[in-house]
Amino acid sequence: MLNLQNNLNYEIDLRVGEIAIIKKLLKSSKLNSEELLLLTKYSVASIYSIWEGFVVKSFGYYVEEINNLQLKTKEININLLTHTVDSQVQLRNERKEFATKCELVGQLFEYISNDDVVITKELPTNSNINFKVINNIFTCFNFSRQLDNKYKSKLNFFLTVRNDIAHGKFSILVDTQNIHEFCSLVIDLMSDVSVIILSEYQEKNYLKIKE
Fold this sequence. Notes:
Shape: globular
Strand content: under 5%
Oligomer: single chain
Order of helices and strands: HHHHHHH
Number of helices: 7
Structural class: mainly alpha
Radius of gyration: 20 Å
Number of strands: 0
Distance between the termini: 26 Å
């Protein structure tokens, strides 16, 4: 538990430092108006990478802690097992050919018959961790908590702006006030996600529910 907490705190401190650098650069008196506009616009992508990077790294640490317990397949919650299998064989993919169906059955049988399990660190981020996606990730890991609804509109707007810029549309005007709001949002999100991960681990929600 302490190791997980230390790792999460490290990731937050690292990224808060990166956010501080972004904000400092935007305040630079050396930038002309065109340079400031360009930096402001592309800072959105940087801030998003801080957010997604934190989610990926944090769940990576969470998975490491679970895998270190060397639990048996029968001990792991079905959500985590399903998520792990799906990340390996892509259950959602349509299989029309008999050969690909045989391949799927073979892989599934291998997982089912194996007494040991290694939970995957892969996450269904879709490179677009909005409010729905982060809560879906929580569900994959059988979290009893979801992200507070107070984040929904702000996080989704942040992702809308980020996607607009990432796809070269630039249809949404972004100013320094938006950047400061996105920075504050990501800092708050990292803090709350960290608390949720630690609580879920402490409550051992990765274990199979006993009937």
